């Protein structure tokens, strides 16, 4: 599987934040109110910006709220202006992404700041097999009908679910569904079903509450506090080490960048020694072995494969197990080629693949003072360390 044959699927998250939230009580719109040391919107955005499976994040805001986002800076993040209703805001966000090569989109309510990485990952995973997917919880309580404060009847709860977000869809299908819908939908599942799109249910999360009433802030505060305490107690470190020898070629692949050189690196894949070391560091932090366990060199399908395939698999496994990558540090050991002129490009490429800010990725180089196989310029070695925290 050569690198040219690999198509990267682009997944965007659309965060709907244009509402006024009047039921949440007096004060600023609920998305801009304080919650556990940040604003509600900050927590929600972080869940998607830090998720390795999300490539773009669009925050759809009210026209009056431009000042609320003026200081936000992240390579994944951009904004769009919402409409008078939720479905109009979603459509505006979708239209801002049209013709940008987006394959899948997850639509999420900004007022659900406690969404977990597991729920996001489950929706993304489901979209590999279906056109639409959304998290939900079965209704377990008895249901009544009532009027004037009195019970007037019962409602069968069989087959009833409590809908949550993010609701995920193939991008083109959801955009077409919104363009055809007359408006007034409660959520995107309603819009999708009106267009004939089947929506699969994935497991929701009781903690994925939507802040609606003033009392919901206290519950969200408690959830985030417990989560932060758990994160502080579960930090993982992993180390990776790899070596590839020189052979015929006119360039070497180092941390995703083709660096001109009089020789190439030899290996079953594209022999990107830096990316392999980082990948093994991630696997190591999870106690998941190394690249060879997941992509055996005896399997011919991986001959000449782009190392990005291996790294993306490790990153996805990190999210699947409920962690996020805090930072990665990679050291390349060689006499030549000189890494310095290419280090920034390597840092940016590794950050892109892992869905991180570049300031969380370190790529540097050293020599072995002409000692050993690297000193004799027989090959290149790489060492890497990765830090994971519970998400």
Automatic annotation (TrEMBL):
Chemical reaction(s) catalysed: 4-CDP-2-C-methyl-D-erythritol 2-phosphate = 2-C-methyl-D-erythritol 2,4-cyclic diphosphate + CMP; 2-C-methyl-D-erythritol 4-phosphate + CTP + H(+) = 4-CDP-2-C-methyl-D-erythritol + diphosphate
Cofactor(s) it depends on: a divalent metal cation
GO biological process terms, semicolon-separated: isopentenyl diphosphate biosynthetic process, methylerythritol 4-phosphate pathway; terpenoid biosynthetic process
Chain segments carrying region 2-C-methyl-D-erythritol 2,4-cyclodiphosphate synthase: 236-391
Feature type site, description Positions MEP for the nucleophilic attack: 157, 210
Pathway: Isoprenoid biosynthesis; isopentenyl diphosphate biosynthesis via DXP pathway; isopentenyl diphosphate from 1-deoxy-D-xylulose 5-phosphate: step 2/6; Isoprenoid biosynthesis; isopentenyl diphosphate biosynthesis via DXP pathway; isopentenyl diphosphate from 1-deoxy-D-xylulose 5-phosphate: step 4/6
Gene3D superfamilies: 2-C-methyl-D-erythritol 2,4-cyclodiphosphate synthase, Spore Coat Polysaccharide Biosynthesis Protein SpsA, Chain A
Record-listed a divalent metal cation binding positions: 242, 244, 276
Domain of life per record: Bacteria
Molecular-function GO term, any one: 2-C-methyl-D-erythritol 4-phosphate cytidylyltransferase activity
Residues of the 2-C-methyl-D-erythritol 2,4-cyclodiphosphate synthase domain: 236-388
Site (Transition state stabilizer) location in chain: 23, 30, 268, 367
Keywords: Isoprene biosynthesis, Lyase, Metal-binding, Multifunctional enzyme, Nucleotidyltransferase, Transferase
Catalytic activity, EC: 2.7.7.60, 4.6.1.12
Residues where 4-CDP-2-C-methyl-D-erythritol 2-phosphate binds: 242-244, 268-269, 290-292, 366-369, 373, 376
Pfam families registered for this protein in UniProt: IspD, YgbB
NCBIfam families: ispD, ispF, PRK09382.1
Task performed by this protein: Bifunctional enzyme that catalyzes the formation of 4-diphosphocytidyl-2-C-methyl-D-erythritol from CTP and 2-C-methyl-D-erythritol 4-phosphate (MEP) (IspD), and catalyzes the conversion of 4-diphosphocytidyl-2-C-methyl-D-erythritol 2-phosphate (CDP-ME2P) to 2-C-methyl-D-erythritol 2,4-cyclodiphosphate (ME-CPP) with a corresponding release of cytidine 5-monophosphate (CMP) (IspF).
Membership in a protein family: Belongs to the IspF family.
Identification of the protein by name: Bifunctional enzyme IspD/IspF
Gene of this entry: ispDF
């Amino acid at each position: 599987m050569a690198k040219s044959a690999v198509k990267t699927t682009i997944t965007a998250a659309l965060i709907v934040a244009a509402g006024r939230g009047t039921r949440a009580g007096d004060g600023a719109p609920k998305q801009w109110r304080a919650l556990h040391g940040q604003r509600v919107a900050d927590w929600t955005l972080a869940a998607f910006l830090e998720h390795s499976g999300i490539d773009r994040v669009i925050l759809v805001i009210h026209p009056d709220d431009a000042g609320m986002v003026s200081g936000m800076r992240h390579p994944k993040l951009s904004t769009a202006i919402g409409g008078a209703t939720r479905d109009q805001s979603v459509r505006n966000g979708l239209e801002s992404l049209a013709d940008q090569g987006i394959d899948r989109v997850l639509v999420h309510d900004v007022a659900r700041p406690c969404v977990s990485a597991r729920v996001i990952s489950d929706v993304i995973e489901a979209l590999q097999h279906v056109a639409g997917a959304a998290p939900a919880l079965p209704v377990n309580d008895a249901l009544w009908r009532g009027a004037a404060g009195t019970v007037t009847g019962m409602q069968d709860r069989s087959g009833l679910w409590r809908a949550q977000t993010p609701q995920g869809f193939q991008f083109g299908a959801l955009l077409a569904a919104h363009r055809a819908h007359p408006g007034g939908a409660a959520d995107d599942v309603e819009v999708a079903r009106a267009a004939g799109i089947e929506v699969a249910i994935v497991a929701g999360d009781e903690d994925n509450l939507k802040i609606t009433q003033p009392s919901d802030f206290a519950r969200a505060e408690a959830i985030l506090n417990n989560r932060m305490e758990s994160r502080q107690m579960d930090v993982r470190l992993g180390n990776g080490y790899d070596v590839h020898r020189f052979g015929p070629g006119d360039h070497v692949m180092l941390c995703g960048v083709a660096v001109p050189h009089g020789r190439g690196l030899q290996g079953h894949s594209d022999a990107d020694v830096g990316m392999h070391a980082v990948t093994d560091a991630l696997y190591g932090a999870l106690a998941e072995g190394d690249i060879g366990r997941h992509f055996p060199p005896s399997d011919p399908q991986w001959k000449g494969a782009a190392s990005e395939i291996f790294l993306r698999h490790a990153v996805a496994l990190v999210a699947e197990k409920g962690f996020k990558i805090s930072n990665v540090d990679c050291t390349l050991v060689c006499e030549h080629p000189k890494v310095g002129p290419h280090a920034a490009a390597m840092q940016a490429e590794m950050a892109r693949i892992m869905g991180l800010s570049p300031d969380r990725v370190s790529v540097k180089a050293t020599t072995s003072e002409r000692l050993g196989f690297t000193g004799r310029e027989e090959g290149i070695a790489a060492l890497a360390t990765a830090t994971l925290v519970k998400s």
